[in-house]
Design goal:
504 residues; alpha+beta; 19 strands
Length: 504
C-alpha cells in the first residue's frame, strides 16, 4: 500500500475507536465502521490467500475449493439456521493432512469448521465468522474391527449405514440411529441419539476413544493411543469432553465405538391409548418391570392422523406407542406378554404385533416417515424440529401444555418422541416467508424449552446447542458451569478458531 493509504487506515482506526466510545453523528460512525471493517477484510483476505496456497501444498489442487456452490453446500445443514458459507473448503485425506491444515489456519488466525454429512439440526456447520471448512468425507475407512471385543475404529467419513453394511457378515452392528445417515464422528461431535437409545444408550455411552486434532494442529487420543478397554478409571474423562462438543474444541479424526450382537429375534408392536397420560404411564411401568425394550416411540393424535394420510394407513387417531423388542425367541415371548399386560391395564388397545421383517417395517412406517408426513400437512412449507427432554414423570404435563400452546397460537406442530428417554420433538411446519408465523414459531420454541427447564429437564435431548440454543444453555447450566466450559474452551482453543459462535 502507498504511504497515503497506510496513513488513512491508521487515521480511520483511531477515529473508529473514538466512535465506539463517544457519541459521533450516526452517519460518520457508520462510515468509519465500514472503512474499518473493509480494512479488516483486506487483512483477512490477504492471510487467506497465503493460506490457500499452503492448503494446496498439503491437499493438492483437487483438495481445495473456493467455488461458490461448494462453499454454499458446506455452509448449511438441515436446520432453519442460515449464515455465511466458509471462505474455502478443504478435503483432507488423512489425519496428518488435518493436522497440517490446522497448523496453517492457526498461523493465519482462520476459523476451522468441521463438516461430516451436513445432517445436523442446529446450524452447527455454518461459518458465522467465515474461515475454512474441513470436509472429512475423503477419510472414509473402517480401520479395525475386533469381533471378539465388540468394538470398531472408523474415520470421520464413515456413516452409520456404511458401517452396518460393512459389519453385515460379522454378526455385529452399531445401534445408535439418529434417523439420518450421519457420519459417526459427526454423531460423536453432537452426542447423537435416536430410537434405540432407551436400550443401547446414546453416542456418549458408546464411544471408547477419540483421535482429535486441536486448533493448533496438536494430535491427542482421549483415552490414550490405541486404547480400547470397555471401562477405565484413568484420569479425566477426555472422551466425553469431546463427545457433544460440536466441533468447538477440535476436529475428530477417528472414533473407536462399541458394537453389539445382532439380536436373534425382533418383535414390533403398535398400540393406541385414550390419553397421553396412559401412554406415558405404560412406558414407565414397562421400564419399571425390567423389560429390556429396544425402542418405545410416541406419536400424538395429530401426528398419527398425518401419517395415516401420508402413507394410506388406518391407525386409530389417538396417542400411540410404537414398540420393539430384541432378544432370543424365548425371552421375547416373556417381554411381549409382560408388555401387553401392562399396556392393557393402562387402556392400551388395537394391538398389532409383527415378527417378520416386512410386517415390522410396515408397522414402523408411520414413525419412520413422521417428518415427511408432517410436511405434507402444509405442502410448500418448511419444517423445524424442536428437541426437549424431561424426566419421564413430567412428560404428560409438558406434552399436554405444549399441545394447548400450539392450538392457542394457531401453529402446526405434531409431536413425536423417544418416550422411553423423556425426549420428544414438535415438528413445526411453517411458511418461512410469513414473518408473523416465523416469529410465533420462534416464541413458541423459546417457551417450550423454558417449560422443559422448569420441569427439571434440558433444552436439547439430542440435537445439540449449535447456533440457536446458546442463551438457553446459559439458563440451563448456570454461571458456574458455563465458566468452567469457557475456561476449557480457552485452554484448548485460545484463539477461538474452532467452530466459533457455536455452543458458547
Amino acid at each position: 500500500m502507498s504511504p497515503f493509504v497506510n496513513l488513512l487506515n491508521s487515521a480511520c482506526t483511531m477515529l473508529f475507536t473514538v466512535a465506539r466510545t463517544r457519541r459521533l453523528p450516526q452517519c460518520v460512525s457508520r462510515l468509519l465502521q465500514c472503512r474499518y471493517i473493509q480494512k479488516e477484510r483486506i487483512q483477512t483476505n490477504g492471510g487467506l490467500k497465503k493460506a490457500i496456497s499452503a492448503f494446496t501444498s498439503v491437499c493438492g489442487e483437487d483438495g481445495v475449493s473456493t467455488g461458490e456452490t461448494v462453499r454454499e453446500q458446506h455452509g448449511r445443514d438441515e436446520s432453519v439456521h442460515r449464515c455465511r458459507p466458509p471462505d474455502v473448503v478443504v478435503f483432507p485425506r488423512c489425519v496428518e493432512e488435518v493436522s497440517a491444515l490446522a497448523k496453517i489456519c492457526y498461523r493465519h488466525n482462520l476459523p476451522i469448521i468441521p463438516f461430516g454429512t451436513g445432517t445436523g439440526l442446529e446450524g452447527g456447520v455454518g461459518a458465522s465468522k467465515g474461515g475454512v471448512c474441513f470436509s472429512l468425507r475423503k477419510m472414509d475407512q473402517v480401520l479395525d474391527v475386533h469381533q471378539e471385543d465388540f468394538d470398531v475404529t472408523v474415520e470421520p467419513g464413515v456413516t452409520r449405514k456404511t458401517l452396518n453394511s460393512y459389519l453385515r457378515d460379522t454378526g455385529l452392528w452399531f445401534p445408535v440411529d439418529p434417523g439420518a445417515d450421519a457420519s459417526l464422528c459427526g454423531m460423536a461431535a453432537t452426542s447423537a441419539s435416536g430410537t434405540n437409545a432407551v436400550h443401547y444408550g446414546t453416542m456418549r455411552e458408546n464411544v471408547l476413544n477419540l483421535e482429535v486434532v486441536l486448533a493448533d494442529g496438536t494430535l491427542v487420543h482421549t483415552a490414550g493411543k490405541g486404547r480400547r478397554p470397555r471401562k477405565s478409571a484413568a484420569g479425566y474423562n477426555l472422551t466425553n469432553l469431546f463427545v457433544g462438543s460440536e466441533g468447538t474444541l477440535g476436529v475428530i479424526t477417528k472414533a473407536t465405538l462399541r458394537l453389539y450382537g445382532i439380536p436373534e429375534a425382533v418383535v414390533s408392536a403398535v398400540c393406541s391409548f385414550p390419553s397421553v397420560q396412559a401412554a406415558v404411564d405404560s412406558t414407565v411401568h414397562v421400564l419399571q418391570a425390567g423389560v429390556p425394550i429396544a425402542r418405545i416411540e410416541f406419536l400424538d393424535d395429530v401426528m398419527v392422523d398425518a401419517c395415516n394420510k401420508f402413507n394410506s394407513l388406518s391407525y386409530p387417531v389417538m396417542p400411540t406407542l410404537f414398540l420393539e423388542f430384541h432378544g432370543t425367541e424365548n425371552s421375547l415371548d416373556e417381554q411381549v406378554r409382560t408388555t401387553e399386560e401392562i399396556t392393557s391395564a393402562n387402556g392400551g388397545a388395537d394391538f398389532q404385533w409383527a415378527r417378520d421383517e416386512g410386517t415390522r417395517a410396515h408397522l414402523w412406517k408411520a414413525r419412520h416417515d413422521a417428518w415427511y408426513a408432517a410436511l405434507a400437512l402444509r405442502p410448500g412449507c418448511k419444517a423445524y424440529a424442536t428437541d426437549v427432554c424431561v424426566p419421564l414423570s413430567r412428560l404428560p404435563d409438558i406434552i399436554v401444555e405444549t399441545k394447548e400452546d400450539l392450538i392457542q397460537n394457531g401453529l402446526t406442530g405434531p409431536i413425536a418422541g423417544h418416550v422411553g428417554d423423556g425426549n420428544f420433538h414438535c415438528i413445526m411446519v411453517l411458511d418461512p416467508d410469513d414473518s408473523d408465523e416465523v416469529q410465533r414459531v420462534h416464541q413458541f420454541t423459546e417457551r417450550l424449552a423454558r417449560r422443559a427447564l422448569a420441569l427439571e429437564g434440558t433444552c436439547t435431548g439430542e440435537h445439540g446447542v449449535g447456533l440457536g440454543k446458546r442463551a438457553l444453555l446459559r439458563e440451563e447450566m448456570g454461571p458456574g458451569a458455563m465458566g468452567v466450559m469457557q475456561s476449557l474452551k480457552e485452554s484448548l482453543d485460545p484463539k477461538n478458531l474452532m467452530n466459533p459462535g457455536k455452543v458458547l
